[in-house]
User: Fold this.
Amino acid sequence: MSRLSAFSAAGRFWRGNLHTHSTRSDGVLDPAEVCRRYRAVGYDFLALTDHFVGLWDYPIVDTTPFRTPDFTTILGAELHSGAMANGELWHILAVGLPPEFAPSDTPDFRPHPAQETAAQIAARAVAAGAFVAIAHPQWSGLTIEDGRALAEIAHAVEIYNHGCATGCDRPDGFILADQLLTEGHPLTLIATDDAHFSEPDHFGGWTMVKSETNTPEALLAALKRGDFYATQGPELRDVRIEGGNLVVECSAAASIMAIGWGTGAKAVHGHSMTSGKVPMERLNNSPWVRAAVIDAAGKRAWSNPIWTGAAAANPRV
Assistant:
């Protein structure tokens, strides 16, 4: 039997948003109000990730004053440096940055010849202790070549971005993530809001992180281990491979899916299913498999991949 570590690790799941903006960059609410709203609707933690550009003096916002006994914050930023294949500036999510993280040469939202590449600034963020994710691949127009540039550096791909769903119907990161997984890169998968509060871009996608305590240090370590799942609402309670099946236990679902490389996928359907066994014969011997759950309202949850072959779990702890 092979089980995702999120469902065997000690602790409990904590609900958090890892991609958020405030008036310290292009959001419309100040940091205190952003934190208040997330806490008020039941989030356990928040990363405020304002745009790390010179227009706003390279902010890494100090959100420590907004922590309470039942709500914590993780410092971070959305980093920008280097040009993607389409000529636009990279967007890289970095959660867990130190306040003294050195600015890049990014005065605005245009690439500049002398600035760091995406790989260089992402590597700096990882070295500084951050959990790093490739932000909104579909919205950015990322190519597989773009993804490969960060595939050995980043921890994760943002596979659902609620702001990109409500603002332009480009929320998806699965094509890039699945291709990079198929090439053997042990990436994990996060869902976020990318909230600016200028449209209904908040409280729509989040990451459930398993740790013993709701502290920045414990949450960050769990993120790097891959002890989490991504969701729009449905709960995942176990994801494991057993007897040739992907076994999923979850909140009430209409569909439970096993997804692998290429065309490899299989689903079971029903009414208010709280568990399902999905035969894996149709996964074409994929070296990885991930679960997707869809409830009766069309809301989804997604697991990290289980590696079925020689590849190990995410080593970038």
Summary: The mean pLDDT is 96. Residues 231 and 301 are 4 Å apart (CA to CA). The chain has seven helices and 17 strands.
